[in-house]
Amino acid sequence: MNFLNTLQESFSINATKNALCINDTFFTYKDLSNCVLKIRKIIQTHINSYEKLIGLVANNDLETYATIFALWLEGKAYVPINPLAPKERNSEIFKLTESTCVFDSTMNSLYSGDFKVFSTPSHYKTSKDHILSHTPYVKYNMAYILFTSGSTGKPKGIPISFENLNALLSTFDNDSEYTLNSTDKCLQMYDLTFDASLTAFMPTFLAGACSYTVPSDSIKYFYIFKLMQKYDLTVLKMVPSIIYYLRPYFSEINRPNVRYCIFGGGKLFKDVVDEWATCVPNSKIYNHYGPTECTVCSSYYSYSPSHRDKSHNGILSIGKPLAGIDYIIINNDKQILKNKEEGELCLSGKQLTKGYWKNEKLNSTLFFNVQLDNGEVKRFYKTGDICFMDNDGYLMYVERKDFQVKVRGYRVELGEIEYHIKSMITKNNLVVIDINNTSGNNEIALVIEGNKLDASTTSTLFNYLQTKLPNYMVPTQTHFLDQLPYNNNGKLDRNQLRKLITKN
Amino acid sequence: MTKEAILEKAKESFIKILGHNNFQLNNETTANDVDGWESVTHMMIITDIEQIFNIKFKLMDLMNMNNVGDLIESIHKAL
Fold this sequence. Notes:
By secondary structure, chain A is of the alpha/beta class. Chain A contains 13 helices and 27 strands.
């Protein structure tokens, strides 16, 4: 598949169908195509052909989606920034990519002083039919660059090429288990600076289905529930935290028309999915896994509500690698480990980025060549995720490498502690976190969402933990919070959590 | 309980959870008007209000809560 060709076919075949629903306003594929054409005109007229990286203020509107496609059809990449993030950080991203041109659909762009800003036209409904055409993409050209927070404080850029993206979308396209059609109504809850947005909106547009977007300033879990109810959505791609938030209300949710429910962007707990499955009784449920560096998704697990579902420490398996993805699991000496041995997951294949944007130091640390058994030398990326492969070929997620903390000199996996606590406390969301105590030592804290447990439950829990875990792994602090904090991308905000519990 | 009294009592939850009283609450107030009122604190405020008034909101009610007026109305209905 050439995804740009398929996209153009889809736009043309489905011209009269709805492509997007944004704030209760529908836009057809024709509206989208017309908007794409106008933006292409701006690009052709005002932007030099050698300028390949174009800034994009990721607003929640037709123009922003149309700009992505217009840039791709012109062989350019988008560099999205979150309009709610500080201007200084966003400007730094544009400077790092040397982007001089920025598309911003807002009236008075914050970036107009420092960059050449194009605001897109405000009305799109033209009567003429247009055919979108494009010159075939150069496979090594970039399709987008996303920036994530770097541990040095400087955001790090991950460039993804057309070839990378095409490899991912082709694999989805060939997957007979997951087939969208033009009548599907699909949730698009992700901010466009988060790569999981691509596996939400791209399969939707390729199939001629309709994407229902979620404004970034909304309370996402309520807004999603509202969209599900109002429009009877059939495909839900979400971060797991959405169902963690909705969990107290599962008894009020029954959506028999949901066909696919896909989770991605965080650990998926089996017990919550078991409960959620009753809310979407006819849905297939998938757990997607993948670092941005390997183009959104590199493996997935297909859940079936049975006790035989694969999980480790209560975390659902991340499944089998996608076709075209090579993986190895290594120890600290870069030796390849056997099945059932825990180590760092490393990925290779056509979806793998060529490396971090202008960051040779990080590239030489995280990318390395390995000679495989068949003699072939392949370039691998160290994901920082601790995993193991079971004997049936399923990848099990253990924990982030960074979350393997040391307590009193022992290496501790927080997920293992959570697992044992969850076997006793089944109805509350909870998390185990390492915190620095006043003496500067690491301590393990248990944070439970909801009301304080009564004394007998607490003592039963801790007596149980003493039988299951070595002493240094038993939490030494317990906190109760009404709500665990998640960041804008739906991931648990550990820094915020640490602040909240030290405030307590 | 009158809606005015409900509002006064609910305001205590806002102050407790948000850690400041630098806001006016009236029927038209939304999350955009109050510093720190976002996804996480919203759920914390809701839980606190449920405890104070000894009520349990329905997801449907929460979904349609667009401003403080809607919140007060839901509490009034549940009491």
